[in-house]
Design brief:
globular; about 625 residues; three-stranded antiparallel β-sheet; mainly beta; 22-stranded antiparallel barrel; Maltoporin, Chain A
């Protein structure tokens, strides 16, 4: 592997100096000489050029533990309960966040030469997908780039026609003496789709039509649609008061830290709005009938300006011991607008993160987030993790225990909502979560076991009202990810087991979800083409899954529609020729064949697409 020149190396070393969790920060490079790092500069990732799971390259299909309305860009519900997902200020449960850009899932680059990725995809019903990524350096210290994703389709069922666009512009600059670093991100997300309210199950021969002629199946809504926009711009600056005293450059970049001090500041402006329109006067099973002759026109706006200030210090010794601390405060001004009501408030948070490592083997991490003033005053998140790094079964594992104690405010619309049909002012108690877990996380395999006690959980019931369950829900979770390789045969297993041990199940989750990939991988045509050929099976057993209410753009509990267990089978072929990756995928090949009498649903009244083909390609350019 080739290395940067010494000057380029010195320009990049500051990137690694901000990690408080390790003694030595390893900045992974591929043969293209690209360094990538997240917005907090704590986790470096290499550019992915493999074929693993490449047939699921569209972000909408990458999360296996979710329930979908049946098409790209339509709302999805996460089926994995995670306390961190319900902490902090939340306007509402974002049913689009599994495929949107945000600051937490964006990365920054430092490139020895320009990189361009272009992706194309097509499928049935004029489904199309396009992605674009470009990044390059100007000089040795400034990098900029942009990323774009867009997709649309006409859909198999009436009145869906989803379309989304994600765009991100990013840039970063590091000073030659590594005392100053600045990163910036500008993000835009746009989603548009019609709302059909699900299929009309009162239609005669409904099951036969869904299986054989989905395009003629009547839907409950014919004139409703949703527009959802979110955008943000952020700038983050780091000031380093103690540059590296000793650096070494080996095969890859390897930075040894001997005590560093940093101040940082981040400012972010974000806006998020959603508009719902229904021009018809229809009434159906899960939508209020419009009372205005012009139909329904609802909206929800949220504007935020946020400033964060922090101090970070890491102290490392030559005995492979390290100590790091990150403390700071965050202030946000929020403005929320709904029909007939507006709200303005400030939120102030304080946070701390402490890491300690002994002999590069024994590690402790503790985090604290506290809401001081505002809507989230009194919110508290305490997390502790202790683990050991050990080599087992020919791979390195982090093995340890974690504990979470959390108090969090419900979403804003669960407490304050105003519209033509729903109006409420609730005063709920804070959601109280205590979670105890064991984890064994490796380079390829991982196991997570947790037990959670969830009190005061807030949800939408079958009348579409926000309700709080004051008793305790006890939830046991087992998450396993384990690949097996037998020569050219690969078997990748993803298993999520979740058991609610309480009398009343207000947190609706399937008992388990399994995703199994079995494929052959190897070279063809005298090592000119690298390929994968295999099958993927996804299965979730029957349960009373949450319904979807278009007007609220939220999921709700229901007890009338049993989502049947269904084994979805896909067949895929992935290929790589130099810098070009291609996939061909036959989706849901068993639809209507086995089982012959079951319509495939993930969400009540919203059947999944029938058998179809998808084709995609990503072409990487180095200029």
């Amino acid at each position: 592997m080739r290395c940067f020149s010494l000057k380029t190396t010195l320009a990049l070393l500051f990137i690694g100096s901000l990690n408080t969790t390790t003694i030595a920060n390893y900045i992974a490079l591929d043969t293209s000489r690209i360094v990538t790092f997240d917005n907090d500069l704590k986790n470096q990732k290499s550019i992915d050029s493999s074929l693993v799971n490449f047939h699921n390259q569209l972000p909408y299909f990458q999360d296996k533990f979710s329930a979908s309305l049946g098409n790209i860009a339509l709302p999805k519900r996460n089926l994995f309960f995670d306390p961190k997902a319900i902490f902090g200020f939340r306007l509402m449960d974002n049913v689009y966040d599994l495929f949107e850009y945000n600051l937490s899932n964006q990365i920054n680059y430092h490139a020895a030469k320009p990189l361009t990725d272009m992706g194309f995809g097509v499928g049935a019903k004029k489904e199309s997908y396009f992605s674009f990524l470009h990044t390059q350096n100007f000089g040795k210290h400034f990098n900029f780039g942009s990323a774009l994703r867009t997709s649309r389709t006409e859909s198999f069922y009436l009145n869906q026609n989803p379309h989304y666009i994600n765009f991100n512009f990013f840039a970063n600059f590091s000073s030659p003496n590594r005392k100053y670093l600045i990163t910036s991100n500008g993000i835009i997300n746009r989603v548009y789709h019609k709302e059909n309210g699900g299929i009309d199950t009162s239609t005669i021969f409904i099951k036969k039509n869904v299986l054989q002629n989905p395009e003629i199946v009547a839907t409950n809504m014919n004139g409703a649609f949703v527009r959802k926009n979110s955008s943000s711009f952020s700038v983050k600056q780091y000031f380093n008061f103690n540059p590296t005293k000793k650096d070494t450059v080996e095969k890859d970049f390897y930075v040894e830290d001997y005590g560093r001090q940093h101040l940082y500041h981040q400012i972010e402006y974000a806006e998020n709005w959603m508009r719902y329109t229904d021009t018809t006067l229809e009434d159906f099973h899960d939508q209020p009938k419009p009372i205005d002759k012009l139909g329904l026109r609802e909206y929800l706006y949220h504007h935020k300006i946020e400033n964060s200030f922090g101090y970070l210090q890491s102290i490392n010794s030559e005995k492979n011991n390290s100590f790091g601390i990150d403390i700071g405060a965050k202030h946000s001004y929020n403005y929320i607008s709904q029909p007939d009501t507006n709200a303005k408030f400030n939120n102030i948070w304080a946070y701390a993160n402490v890491d300690y490592t002994l002999k590069s083997k024994y590690k402790i991490n503790a985090k604290c987030n506290q809401g001081i003033i505002g809507y989230n005053a009194g919110d508290l998140q305490l997390q502790a993790k202790i683990f050991i790094t050990k080599n087992l079964f020919k791979q390195w594992f982090d093995i340890g225990l974690n504990v979470t104690n959390q108090l969090s405010q419900p979403t804003y619309i669960q407490e304050h909502y105003s519209s033509s049909h729903f109006n409420w002012e609730n005063k709920f108690n804070k959601i109280d979560i205590k979670q105890y877990g064991f984890f064994m996380q490796g380079e390829k395999s991982n196991i997570q076991i947790s037990y959670s006690k969830i009190k005061n959980f807030v949800y939408f019931d079958s009348t579409f009202a926000a309700k709080q369950y004051s008793k305790v829900n006890n939830l046991f979770q087992l998450n396993v990810n384990h690949p097996i390789k037998l020569n050219k045969l690969h078997i990748n297993t993803l298993l999520l087991f979740q058991k609610n041990l309480s009398d009343k199940d207000v947190i609706r989750l399937p008992e388990y979800t399994i995703s199994e990939q079995i494929y052959f991988e190897g070279w063809l045509f005298k090592r000119a083409l690298f390929s994968q050929a295999g099958v993927e099976l996804n299965y979730t057993p029957a349960y009373y899954g949450n319904g979807y209410l278009p007007l609220l753009n939220q999921f709700y509990n229901q007890d009338k529609f049993l989502v049947a267990g269904y084994p979805q089978l896909d067949v895929f072929f992935n290929f790589k020729i130099q810098q070009v990756r291609i996939f061909v995928k036959a989706c849901n090949v068993n639809y209507g064949l086995y089982p012959t009498d079951i319509v495939y649903y993930q969400v009540p009244f919203h059947p999944m697409p029938p058998r179809m083909f998808r084709l995609g390609i990503i072409w990487r350019f180095w200029d």
